[in-house]
Design brief:
- The complex is a heterodimer of chains A (155) and B (83).
- Chain A has 4 helices and 9 strands; from the N terminus they run E-H-E-E-E-H-E-E-E-H-E-E-H.
- With 155 residues, chain A is α+β, with helices and mostly antiparallel strands.
- Classes of the chains: A alpha+beta (155), B alpha+beta (83).
- The interface between A and B is medium-sized, with 28 and 18 residues.
- Chain B: It comes from Shewanella loihica (strain ATCC BAA-1088 / PV-4).
């Protein structure tokens, strides 16, 4: 049996998907590795975006991410759980967030990855400030994200 | 003292990221603290009256009737938008 390891990082610097993949995929008892990467895209609600700044609540952010990782472990048999979230200013196309989970089987790994990103989006204290042609604009929370997180509460 | 923090557009609109508030009878709950700060002036009243405003007491998202004591850290912020 492999040892359960959570890796939770909040950082300004970029992360390497190959490095993070290699870190969690080395274990031969896991048949499934699921990763998700969130990127800065060039539009939001129809307006052009030139860059994005992520603000967070230091201390609380790490605590919430660790709590979300622990909740995922209670629901599914997972080996590795990695959550990396960047803060600061990011250009178009840059990576914002990495989620990586491993499990013996794919269903648990897929479900846990989706749960982690849905919960992170609604529970972790991060805020997005978009810069575009119209100036700077705080991104509004979306009802759809709340609904996605609530779906997991019913299960 | 109660250490009060503000984040994102709440911080930007108030022009403050942190202030200290002396604990008093009025600050025994998160709602009491909000009401005290909202009474400062029109700007504070307007920003802190938002029905979307969230409060965290000692780094845990809390309800408005949560108890607040001397030495606590209380943060006010809008709904989160990470990921």
């Amino acid at each position: 049996m492999s040892q359960a390891i959570d890796r939770v990082l909040v950082q300004t610097q970029d992360f390497s998907v190959p490095d993070e993949y290699a870190r969690i995929a080395a274990d031969d008892s896991d048949g499934a590795v699921v990763t998700f990467v969130g990127k800065v895209r060039d539009f939001n609600d129809g307006s052009a975006v030139t860059d994005l700044t992520l603000e967070h609540y230091p201390g609380m952010t790490e605590a919430v991410l660790n709590q979300i990782a622990a909740e995922a472990r209670e629901r599914w048999p997972l080996t590795h759980v990695t959550i990396i979230h960047r803060v600061g200013t990011m250009a178009l196309g840059e990576q914002i967030v990495f989620i990586g989970v491993t499990s013996a089987h794919r269903k648990a790994a897929f479900a846990a990855c989706e749960f982690l990103i849905d919960f992170l989006k609604t529970k972790a204290p991060f805020w997005k400030l978009e810069a575009g042609d119209q100036g700077k604009n705080w991104v509004e929370a979306k009802d759809a994200d709340d609904q996605a997180a609530k779906m997991w509460e019913k299960q | 003292m109660i250490n009060v923090l503000f984040f994102a557009q709440v911080r930007e609109l108030l022009g403050e990221s942190t202030i200290e508030v002396e604990a008093s009878e009025q600050t025994t709950t998160a709602e009491g603290l909000r009401a005290l700060l909202a009474a400062k002036d029109d700007k504070w009243g307007k920003v802190l009256a938002s029905d979307k405003l969230l409060v965290a007491v000692n780094q845990t998202i809390s309800s408005w009737d949560t108890q607040v004591e001397d030495g606590d850290e209380v943060a006010f912020f809008p709904p989160v938008t990470g990921g």
